[in-house]
Amino acid sequence: MATCLEIEDLHVSIDGTPILKGLDLTVRGGEVHALMGPNGSGKTTLSYALMGHPRYRVTRGRVRLDGQDLLPLAPDERARSGLFLAFQYPSEVPGVTVFNFLRQALNARLPQELSVWEFRERLLEKMAVLEMDESFAQRDLNEGFSGGEKKRNEMLQMLMLEPRVAVLDEPDSGLDVDALKVVARGINALRGPDFAALIITHYNRLLKYVEPDRVHVLLDGRIVRSGGKELAEELEEKGYDWVRAAEAAPAREG
Question: Looking at the predicted structure, is the pLDDT value of residue 93 above 90?
Fold first, then answer.
C-alpha cells in the first residue's frame, strides 16, 4: 500500500479552547508538503495532536495513516506505525547517550533487534550523510547541544528510523544557513515513494533547499489556501496579512 496520511475535518482543543477548527490535508508518499502560518494559527497544535499528546484533545475528525485510524493509538503505537515528529524544542535527557537512545528507539521498531555492531554500522552511515563526527553519538541526548546540533540530532533520528511520514515542527527555527542545509540534506535523503513529509514553518528559508510539492496556509485553525512552491515565495514577499485580507474580502462582499 502506498504511503498516505489523511486528515479529515480535524478539530482539536487545548484546555477547552478550540485551536484547530476543521483541518483537511492529505500527504502522499513521495510528497513534501509545507504548512505555513503565523504564530497562534495552530501549526504546533497539529503536530502534537497527530502524535497523541494528551493535552491536545481531538473533538472531531479522522486521521489515517495508510488506511489505519491513528486516533485510538497511544503515541508509541503511532510511532511504530510509521509516524515521526521532529520537535521544535527537543528535550534534554542527561545520562542517556545519543547512541543508546537511538538503539532502543530503532530496535523497538524492528521485528528483530540489530546487534551492537550492525547498529553502529547503520548509525555511522547516517551520520556521514549529515556530516556528523562519530563522537557525537557518545554525548548525552541534547544536553548542552546548540540549536543546530539539536536539529541535526532530530534529522539523525529520522534517518535511522526511516518513518513513513515525518512531521517536522519548525525545523528551521534559529538556524544559520549551514545548519539549514544539513536539515535539508536529511529530508532529501529520504525522499521517495515510501516517505512523505509535512514541514511546519513560518518562513521560506528551508524551502529553498527542500522543494515542496504543495504549500498550505493555516489561519485560525483552518487551511485557507494551498498552492505550489510559488505560494511560499509570495508569502515571503507579501506576508500573512495579504492572505487575511483576501479571505476577508468575500465576507465583506457578501
Answer: no
Per-residue DSSP letter, 3? -
CA angle 76, 29, 91 (to 5 degrees): 35
Sign (positive or negative) of CA dihedral 183, 83, 195, 199: negative
Alpha carbons 196 and 254: distance in angstroms, whole number: 39
Residues 16 and 147: their CA atoms lie apart, in Å, by: 33
d(CA 80, CA 107): 11
Grid cell at residue 12: 482539536
Domain boundaries, the chain: 4-253
- Indicate the pLDDT class of residue 250, thresholds 50, 70 and 90: low
What are 3's three cell numbers?
Answer: 504511503
Show the cell assigned to 131.
556530516
Model confidence over 94-126: pLDDT tens digits? Answer: 899 999 999 999 998 888 889 999 999 999 999
| Helix ranges (DSSP H) in 82-135 | 98-109, 116-129
Angle among Cα 31, 33, 35 to the nearest 5 degrees reads 170
The reported pLDDT for the residue numbered 249 is 65
Domain 4-253: give its CATH code: 3.40.50.300
Grid cell at residue 164: 513513513
Q: Quick: pLDDT tens for 148-196.
A: 888 888 999 999 999 999 999 988 877 888 888 888 999 999 999 999 9
- How far is Cα 214 from Cα 217, in angstroms, rounded to an integer? 10
